[in-house]
Amino acid sequence: MKIEILQFAEGATKAKGVAVIIDVFRAFSVECYASDGGVVQLIAVSEVEEAFRLKEKYINSVLAGERDEKKIDGFDLGNSPTEIIKADLKGKTFIHTTTAGTQGLINAVNADIVLTGSFVNAGAIVSYIKDLNPDIVSLVAMGYRAKYSAEEDLLCARLIFERLNNNVTVTEKEISVLQYTSGKRFFNKLNSNFSPPTDFFLCTMTDRFNFILRAERRDDGNIVLIRSEI
Fold this sequence. Notes:
By secondary structure, the chain is of the alpha/beta class.
């Protein structure tokens, strides 16, 4: 099994084999919490206008996502797992767009299988890949705003890489230290309305969920995420 670590939308485009598109803070943590909240369908889109179009198509739906980390005007929810776990999502279609994570899913056009990646279901991702035993695994760290390397995404990629090789050195302590580096923005009082401290802890609960979210491209170019229990 050849495993490579890539970054940003460009990396997603280059990804082959089984691609894990990683966005810890916060897109793919949010999607796991939304799935756990009982949504019946989870759709990832690239553009805000497309999200609004789908909102009209699916009557029992909610719009969730961010631009510049903040909830988009006219959306029901932001990109905060703290907000997601408080929302009534049971039976609803969850339409999601973000600056980094969902763009990675859209751009992963050359991979055979595409998964979302985060700490909260890292163990399930590893188990799924080990069962498949593919020739190539591409771990794509989407980074902050899909432009700058993000320590949390690279650390998550490393965690998955090491577990796939049965050699785990990433510790919970190392993950918790992120609150003083790339995760320190969650503890800035100016961000508390859209990015509270609880988001950090919800995004770093390693192996909280025992399912994977596998991306399938729809005829309209958007992505539907299929949950599979592991």
